[in-house]
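Pilot study result, target chain (471 residues):
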Amino acid sequence: MTPLFPLIKELLAVTAPVSREVVVRGWVRTRRAMKNLVFVEMNDGSTLSGIQCIFDLASPGADGGVTAEIGRLNTGASAEITGKLVPSPAAGQKVEVAASGLRVLGEAPAEDGPASRAYPLQKKRHSLEFLREMPQLRGRTTTIAAVMRVRNRLACGIHRFFQERGYLYLHTPIITGSDAEGAGAMFEVRAGGGRAEAGAEANPGGFFGKRSFLSVSGQLEAEAYALALSRVYTFGPAFRAENSNTARHLAEFWMIEPETAFFHLDDNMALAEDFLRFLCALVLEDCAEDLAFFEARVEKGLTAAIRQVAETAFTRMSYTDAVTELEKHRGAFEFKPYWGCDLQSEHEKFLTEDAAGGPVIVTDYPREIKAFYMKQNDDGKTVRAMDVLVPRLGEIIGGSEREENLAALETRMRELGLDTGHYDWYLDLRRYGSVPHAGFGLGFERLIQYVTGMANIRDVIPYPRAAGQLY
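Predicted structure:
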């Protein structure tokens, strides 16, 4: 039989079923029996809700083989159920399947046996800490499945946003010889897997002839192509070797980094605001069912907070003005604010939730706390940097206008002790046809955390890589 509706999401969207034949494929969430009726809830991950399939074992046309198969339908088992899609008399669901055929595709034992271990995700609420120990299975849980659907929708939305605005998608290197941050914690790449590298004595610089690392950012490489193609964006993995076992850190994560030629700081801020508002509006429209779940089970008020970002114009203030405001309330903070400090999460949340009552873009930070490539202001103290802050989280986007003047960039690099020889290719961009340009970075997992309310960043990526955690 050719399935009319291959996804449960499509089955549940039918509003006027006329006993149409369907095939349901998925995994068993629950099974319960009442006399001759057996209720099986199936889910295939395409939607939050499962679909109820009802077997009437006393019906005249009941298949005797089905009775035997039903006994194998434990939680977690995979199956193919055939039947008719009919209106459901039960509250909370429009349709159900009057099941007539069953084929168990893969069993999931409820108890340890001689041939297999018990399925670990039985019908009960499991902690997220427990689920992190089995990323290969946690996608079958309601919470993680909902996170992954939102993640997918946001990824599609990111490409849509930039493609509609004339940006070219750029794949930047994962292996690099340059540190985009100037002082980042990087993973060094070495060939040989622990064995002596062939020709190591003749090539002391390693496989590439020089030290190489996993990239912390594609920004520098993206700048080169922005100064050839005008508008580019990257969306790929980045790596930081910070030995931090916290809810905010990953060793491998994904970054979105647009770079735009002929842009100044104001242009960059406008793009970042449009981008974030677009993504929040997209989630509200396309992920309503999953957002309702997060609202009920993860964080109250989540939807309203996302809507505020989507619909509110962002407040803009300089770093100096922000610190002045914070200093009025010094007693409220664990880390006392002062001009020149790096703003902490508690400061950022205060600025958004108390001072501005909404999203804030802070600009013109002290140059001592920002990266070497940021354009210096005429005051000699600050750079044309920006951070986008949102309520509940704090910083979600960081960016700047880039220094396009060769002499100024070389001077700044020397001040920071950077070897300009390692960045000679980057300096070429200032030697030949340099133009004003700007860009920003958004950590994809931080965005997903924000719109789902998930507290731990390791729960918003399929396979978390962090200090002491690798599968």
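One observation from the pilot: Residues 142-164 form the longest helix (23 residues). A full batch analysis is planned for the follow-on phase.
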